[in-house]
Amino acid sequence: VQLVESGGGFAQPGASLRLSCVASGFTFSNYSVNWVRQPPGKGMEWVSTLLSDGRLPAYADSVKGRFTISRDNAASTIYLQMNSLKSEDTALYYCATLYRGSTLRGRGTQVTVSS
C-alpha cells in the first residue's frame, strides 16, 4: 500500500508544473485524496482535496484559481496542475489519504519556485 508523488522540480515565478501521485495496493477509486505541502521551516499545509468520484474539488485560498486537482481512477493517479507559481509555493508536496483510520502519505516531491 503506497502513494508515490512525482513531477516536482525547479520553476520560475509564473511558470507551471504538474504533480502526479500514483497509488498502489488498495482500491484508489474508493478514497478521497488530498494534496498537502510543507514549506521550508514551516508546518504542513492543506492544499486541495478531491472526492473519490472526482466531484467537489476544494482548494486552500492561497492556491484557488491557480491550482487544479484531478484524478484518473483507472490509472490510480491523482494530479495537481499548478499554474502561475509563486515563490511562496515552494514546498515539499505530498498526496495523502485516510486509509484504514490512518493517514497514508507518500514521500513527497519538491517544488522550488525562484527567479
Structural class: mainly beta
Q: How much of the residues is beta strand, in percent?
A: over 45%
Order of helices and strands: EEEEEEEEEEE
Number of helices: 0
- Residue-averaged pLDDT: 97
Radius of gyration: 13 Å
Let me know the largest β-sheet: 7 strands, mixed
- Unreliable sequence segments: none
Q: How many strand segments?
A: 11
The termini sit apart by: 38 Å
List the defining traits of the structure above.
single chain, about 120 residues, mainly beta, seven-stranded mixed β-sheet, four-stranded antiparallel β-sheet, globular
Give a description of the structure.
- It is a single chain.
- The protein has 115 residues and is mainly beta.
- Helices cover 0% and strands 52% of the residues.
- The chain contains no helices and eleven strands.
- It has strands at 2-6, 9-11, 17-24, 33-38, 45-50, 58-59, 67-72, 77-82, 91-99, 102-105, 109-113.
- Strands 2, 4, 5, 6, 9, 10 and 11 form a seven-stranded mixed beta sheet that branches. Strands 1-3-8-7 form a four-stranded antiparallel beta sheet, with no helix packed on it.
- A hairpin with a 2-residue loop joins strand 9 and strand 10 (102-105).
- It is globular, with a radius of gyration of 13 Å.
- It starts with a strand and ends with a strand.
- The model has no long low-confidence stretch (mean pLDDT 97).
Summarize the structure.
The chain is mostly beta strands and 115 residues long. It is built from no helices and eleven strands.
Q: How are the SSEs placed, and which strands pair?
A:
Layout: E1 2-6, E2 9-11, E3 17-24, E4 33-38, E5 45-50, E6 58-59, E7 67-72, E8 77-82, E9 91-99, E10 102-105, E11 109-113
